[in-house]
Amino acid sequence: MAAMGAMAALGALPAGAGALPPLPTLGVPGVPELKPLTRYEAMRLGPGWSHSCHAMLYAPNPGMLFGRIPLRYAVLMQMRFDGLLGFPGGFVDRRYWSLEDGLNRVLGLGLGCVRLTEADYLCSHLTEGPHRVVAHFYARQLTLEELHTIEISAVHSRDHGLEVMGMVRVPLYTQKDRMGGLPNFLGNSFVGTAKFQLLFALKILNMVPEEKLAEAVAATQKPKKPAIDHAAAATAKAANELAGPARAGNEFQDSAENQAAAQAAAELAEQPAAAPESQAALEQLAAAPVAEAVAAEQPVQPRADAAAEQAVAEPME
Fold it and tell me: How far apart are CA 138 and CA 135, in angstroms?
């Protein structure tokens, strides 16, 4: 709460109060930095700028996951209608509402029973992109019982099941595989500046050590190993096992055929050479089928003398 009060006081300083201390930055490798500005600077922006206000509700959580992993804090976020994760809140029309009044109006639609004040103000950043938007962020620490009450009331709010699919808690731990918990959660898709605001608040409020945040972000940027298709692997293994006996049978058959061919060649080699006359007869017998096949393919031509005899006989008749 002390950090939030200091940020709110810093934002309310007038321009002539002297040099302001540098605004805190995220400083986590792999996360693009957004330009910070004070609340006073944000309020002085012209009418061409839009203002969005969102809030992080959190509570200390003494629970232990599996009896050994400390949960430390319970942090609420929302699953939105578009499948993106974000914080409760929305755009505030500065013509009719102050930042806090506009934020509480939106929170009433999505949560139902919480109101924030200027003391809960945490930071403001200029967003990237073609739209001129200032993202204001608030944080309120509650008790775990109060947080649970908000989770229950959110189910009965007007926006539940429409613009808001449900509340989720952010896992702030990292499991032994270095992916379970916060790294896997950061691998989801977030709307707008929500991911940056989450990391910024976790750092500024000392909820997660900065080096742990850097490790979690770095883990999400490593290429993932392709998932093993265990069903396909089991099918391939079974096919190999079934094909084993068939391959063995084919190898045995090939071996037997090779042995029979070798034995026949040895027997022929042991027989005495045939006499020249017998050899010539064998060659003639072997050539006979070939000659008959050739003769069958060619048409029989009439002999020249037979044609001449027929030509002479016709005039004599």
Answer: 10
CA distance 310 to 42: 125
Residue 109 phi, psi (nearest 5): -75, -30
Residues 229-276 pLDDT 10s? 556 666 667 666 666 555 555 555 555 666 766 676 566 555 554 444
pLDDT digits (tens, 9 = 90+) for 278-290: 455 545 654 555 4
Complete DSSP assignment for 41-81: HHHTS-TT-EEEEEEEEEEEEEEEETTTEEEEEEEEEEEET
What one-character-per-residue DSSP string does 164-231 give? EEEEEEPP--B-TTSSTBHHHHHTS-B-TTHHHHHHHHHHHTTSS-HHHHHHHHHHHHSPPPPPP-HH
User: Are residues 173 and 215 in contact, defined by beta-carbon separation less than 8 angstroms?
Assistant: no
CA dihedral of 11, 206, 55, 45, whole degrees rounded to 10: 30
Closest CA to 59 of 169, 181, 156: 169
Global pTM? Answer: 0.67
Q: Position of tokens 């084993």?
A: 244
* Model confidence pLDDT, tens digit, residues 38-67: 999 999 988 889 999 999 999 999 999 999
Q: In this structure, are residues 31 and 142 in contact, taking their beta carbons and an 8 Å threshold? A: no
Query: What gap in Å lies between CA 288 and CA 297, rounded to an integer?
Result: 15
